[in-house]
Design brief:
The complex is a heterodimer of chains A (88) and B (84). Chain A has 88 residues and is an all-beta fold. In chain A, 0% of the residues lie in helices and 51% in strands. In chain A, strand 2 and strand 3 form a beta hairpin. Chains A and B meet through strand 4 and strand 5 of A and strand 1 and strand 3 of B. Strand 5 of chain A pairs antiparallel with strand 1 of chain B, so a sheet runs across the interface.
């Protein structure tokens, strides 16, 4: 699972029917301090996250276990909105 | 599977229903890897060296519940023995 912040949205009209009604967000991976890391990914939103929010992303086949993603062609899903990252 | 050190916690209020009540730990992959977030399955705490399972199998630690995770802490390491 990784930390990311939402930097944009993706709009697609023609898509797999199982993706209909799902929000696709552009996410930039961040480190625990909130600094941007290299690369970005597109993830399906399952928790109603919004622009600039820090989120928790699950990748791979486990993403299909997120709510409403069962049997869908999804390999990255947003499963949580991060309130706080506490470092020891 | 790999070894990691618990370096912090992540707090999230709005999250997937399957993650409710689960502890999210910030793990530094040993020796100097990136920080990842893993769901705790064994009650690990700050500063402990742990064993992290990743991929689809990570969710098996919580069977029969289907938890949406791709990294889980599945063991707390007591000792490591190795030859150089």
């Amino acid at each position: 699972m990784l930390l990311a912040r939402i930097v944009g949205t993706v709009v697609a009209t023609r898509k797999d029917p199982r993706l209909e009604g799902k929000k696709l967000l552009i996410c930039r991976q961040v480190d625990p301090d909130g600094n941007d890391e290299k690369g970005y990914l597109i993830a399906v939103d399952t928790v109603d996250a919004g622009f600039r929010e820090k989120v928790l992303i699950v990748q791979g086949s486990s993403a299909r276990m997120a709510q409403g993603c069962k049997d869908t062609p999804v390999d990255a899903a947003i499963v949580g909105i991060v309130d706080q990252v506490a470092q020891d | 599977m790999y070894l990691g050190k618990v370096i912090g916690r992540v707090v999230s209020t709005v999250k997937d229903a399957s993650l409710e009540g689960r502890k999210l730990l910030l793990i530094r992959r040993l020796p100097n890897g990136p920080a990842v977030i893993a769901v705790d399955a064994v009650g690990a705490g700050a500063g402990e060296t742990v064993y992290v399972c990743r991929g689809r199998e990570a969710a098996f630690a919580f069977k029969p519940q289907e938890v949406s995770t791709e990294a889980s802490v599945v063991a707390i390491v007591d000792t490591i023995e190795r030859e150089l």
